[in-house]
Amino acid sequence: MDLKYIYARIGISTNTRSFVKSVLFFFTGLFLFTQLVILNQPADAISFTKGSVRPADVLNYESLGYTYDTLPIQGSNTNLKVRKNAASLTQDEINRLVNAIVSLKRTMTSGRDGTQISIFDQFVATHLGTTDVSGRIGPDGRRFSNPAHGNAAFLPWHREFIYEFEHLLQVVDPSVTLPYWDFTDRNATQNIIFQNNFLGPNGGSSGVGGGAVQSGFFSAANRWLQRTDLSGNTWAGKSTATQPLTRYLRSLDRLPTQTQVNQALALTTYDKFRSSLETTAHATAHLWMGGSTANVATSPNDPTFWLLHANVDRIWAQWQVNDHWGSNWYTAPGKPYGHNLNDMMWPWDQGRISAAADLQALIPTQPSTLATRPSGRSVSFRVASSPEDLMSDKSGHLYNPFEDNGTQHMAHHMADEENMNPSSDSVS
After folding, report:
1. Residue 411, class by beta-carbon neighbours within 10 Å (0-12 exposed, 13-18 middle, 19+ buried)?
2. Which of 145, 174, 206, 258 gives the lowest tally of CB atoms within 10 Å of its CB?
3. What is the average per-residue pLDDT within 81-88?
């Protein structure tokens, strides 16, 4: 049924039809102009302060006096926001998320040696640093393994990492939370996630064949370029060169499956669960995208990284909620430094281990708990280890991934961020 048929049925004349078309064109143009204005708003500059995080901080809530089924909720917690399934976002929510990501990419700050780097790229440098510090001597005298991959800290490290990124998005737009990409949903992946109005298409001409992403918000045409020195799996020294985001999306039948996820969820020790989730569904999702994301060390160059890991974190939360809670479900001892419960995780280890000096200069001064705007307003927030950061806005249960029939993933956000108290154990 076309518009002419509809017009005829309701008796609209030819002249009126022309008027209606003109009005539609006007408002369509106004909408597109508004989106261009929104996506060019700058973010406030941000600086970081030091902090320390251990695997135990992210794994062990009971040590803080909380139990799984009961949480002390003081006052109203209507300020809690949710992490939603990316497939359920409205276009306004997508636009706000994209605007916040682009703003962090375009907001420049000075590295420790004065080098200019974007806030977004500082996170890429940090992730690359996990490879660069591998093999260095740790505080225990042994060789340091990769602090974020291949061992017990994989899940808590990335929970902390994406949580801090989310809070910087909220410095730009307090309404934004980090959605999750359910990479087992083939229909949503193809028809919602990797479309021009969201994360953009496959690389190549018209999104065919793979290569540089040529359309959408994260294309070179829209000034989304990644630093060449932050684009590989190893650090080779600074470079001023840039290159486009690349993708080589595989066929949909190569996506991670719910069977893989269920197999991980069925495992009954933390170490087996972590290993299965990291090496199957998580690794498969990275390889499925190819290109920039296949370079795992610098995979945060593709904004999809953040949604991918929000989903990995959701699956971990799902395993925790499913009766895998408390000290019986933590990692076994005897891991390399940085992966035991009482070890500090790099780079939140107060400088115990450093990457190469020129790379270290690009990494924030320990990305942690404070972001400061030029006006002097401070935005303090809790790290992802705090129970009130991980509870439902209705039930009060810890990090409940089943809110709203499983479509929402929980994140904590206070509307009045300036009144947050990092040392408090309650929601104000």
Report:
1. buried
2. 206
3. 82
Are the C-beta atoms of 199 and 303 separated by less than 8 Å? yes
pLDDT of residue 290: 97
Query: Between these two residues, 209 and 75, which has the higher pLDDT value?
Result: 209
Question: E-assigned strands of 91-184?
Answer: 108-110, 116-118
Higher per-residue pLDDT: 180 or 373: 180
Distance of CA 306 to the CA centre of its chain: 3
DSSP 428: -
DSSP 8-class letter at 152: T
Residue-wise pLDDT tens digits, 154-171: 998 998 888 788 878 888
Q: Is 92 left (phi over 0), alpha (psi -120 to 50) or beta?
A: alpha
> How many angstroms separate the CA atoms of 100 and 362, rounded?
21
Q: Counting beta carbons within 10 angstroms of the beta carbon of residue 93, is it exposed (0 to 12), middle (13 to 18) or buried (19 or more)?
A: middle
Query: What is the structure's pLDDT at 91?
Result: 97
Q: What is the mean pLDDT of the chain?
A: 76
Query: Phi, psi at residue 142, to the nearest 5°?
Result: -100, 165
CA distance 356 to 366: 15
Written as one letter, the residue type at 149 is H
DSSP for residue 280: I
* Euclidean distance between CA atoms 228 and 231, whole angstroms: 5
| 364/111 Cα distance (integer angstroms) | 7
Q: Which long-range contacts (CB under 8 A, 24 or more apart) does 123-127 make?
A: 123/161, 123/165, 123/300, 123/367, 124/226, 124/227, 124/230, 124/298, 124/300, 124/301, 125/230, 125/359, 125/362, 125/363, 126/161, 126/347, 126/363, 126/364, 126/367, 127/161, 127/297, 127/298, 127/299, 127/300
Render 216-237 in DSSP notation, one character per residue: STTSGGGT-EEEGGGSSSS---
Tell me the pLDDT tens digit for each residue of 260-315: 999 999 999 999 999 999 999 999 999 999 999 999 999 999 999 999 999 998 88
- CA 179/CA 159 separation, integer angstroms: 14
Q: Which of 163, 138, 247 lies closest to 201 in space, CA to CA?
A: 247
Rg, C-alpha atoms of the chain: 23
- Other CB atoms within 10 Å distance of the CB of residue 156: 27
Whether the CB-CB separation of 412 and 177 falls below 8 Å is answered with: no
- Beta bridge mates, 81: 411
- Residue 325 is which amino acid? W
